Amino acid sequence: MLRMTRAELYDLVWSKPMTEIARQYGIRDQHVAQTCDAYEIARPRAGHWQRVEHGKSVETAALDNKNHSPETIIVIEPALRKPGGLQRGDHDDAAKKCAA
To answer: Is pLDDT of 83 > 60?
Structure first.
């Protein structure tokens, strides 16, 4: 679970790729992106981290505080199950049902 202020999430998404953030907090990177969009937190554009890796200059967008306070608490819960999808261990049950 990820629980932090809007300003902290902004700093986090500009410090490392969302896939790393997702892995670190046990959440999906899509949920981080959707939360950033919902709370108007600018996030790095495609290719940003490759440019950083190769020492190129990158632009960082400022945190826009017009509609949301930087101190707003944001919580992103881990996705327990993908709707309609299989989880680990479900594959065996599904295979047994098909074989029956």
So the answer is: no
